[in-house]
Amino acid sequence: MLVSGKELFQAAKKGGYAVGAFNLNNMEILQAIIEAAEEENSPVFLQASQGGIKYAGIEYIAGMAKIAAERAKVPVALNLDHGTSFTQVVQCVRHGFSAVMIDGSQHPFEENIAITKKVVEVAHPNGVSVEAELGKIGGVEDDIMVSARDATFTDPKEAAEFAERTQVDALAIAIGTAHGVYKGEPKLDFDRLAEISKATDVPLVLHGASGVGDEAIRKAVPYGICKINIDTELRQAFARAIQQVIAKNPNEIDPRKMLGPAKDAMKEVARTKMRLFGSAGKA
């Protein structure tokens, strides 16, 4: 069933677990995520990034996701991931997204607040939850690139003020993760996370979690991390599976025989993450 992101955030915070948010770009990725959620009896966020929407088209993305969510036996939220424009947010709301993220982290604090409040004013009356970002998470997310030099950690006092003034449903914070593939294992700033969690009661979101160690994830969730984004590990599983099929049969031309194993590989990644995040069995 399609539900508001707020419903998933609040249940996760109350239950002490995090919900996995997985990016979709095509039908097989969507099927892998939904099948994993149903098999694990887990709530789940389907996410479409700006790049995903540009690639598939918002009509296809929204249409596929809404069909999958309506047929699913578990709660599903459809989220815009890293939206950077008010126009795009409105477009997603009109196409039936039940959650949006507005990323104004590249702007000064006051401007980020102003942009986020504008999105909240449009989204909330339509039953759509709003996630925002404070602090700059390093790495590359589609067209958004933040260098290691420019990445800044979230300030706990600013997080409290930001949440209160914007009335967002969730806040993505920067505590040491990055988008894309890591060189080595990232070290999260748990002291900062604890301060942010103490300063504000808003559900927190961890971006760039592909490649973060299991123990670090387990340690982070009790501090109010209610949503964890996974994209890179799905892509890696997808690519490995297709490479294996072609290596075994270089003459294979049936896309079903390539994409089927890729779907199964991605599903196992998603199932493993749902168990790690503590959302398995919580639908």
Short description:
The protein is of the alpha/beta class and 283 residues long. It has eleven helices and eleven strands. The strands form two sheets. It has an eight-stranded parallel barrel with strand order 1-2-3-4-5-8-10-11, surrounded by nine helices. The chain has a three-stranded mixed sheet with strand order 7-6-9, with no helix packed on it.
Mean pLDDT: 91
What does the overall shape look like?
globular
Instruction: Briefly note the structural class of the backbone.
Output: alpha/beta
What's the tally of helices? 11
Q: What share of residues are in beta strands?
A: 15-25%
Please tell me how large the radius of gyration is. 18 Å
Strand order within the widest sheet? 1-2-3-4-5-8-10-11
Overall description:
The N and C termini lie close together (11 Å). Strand 10, helix 9 and strand 11 (225-230) form a beta-alpha-beta unit. Strands 1-2-3-4-5-8-10-11 form an eight-stranded parallel barrel, surrounded by nine helices. The protein is an alpha/beta fold and 283 residues long. The radius of gyration is 18 Å and the shape is globular. Helix 5 (86-94) packs parallel to helix 6 (109-123) and helix 7 (156-166) runs parallel beside helix 8. It has helices at 5-15, 27-40, 50-56, 58-71, 86-94, 109-123, 156-166, 190-199, 214-220, 232-248, 255-277, and strands spanning 19-23, 44-49, 76-83, 99-102, 129-134, 138-141, 144-146, 170-173, 178-179, 204-206, 225-230. The protein has a single domain, classed as TIM Barrel, CATH 3.20.20.
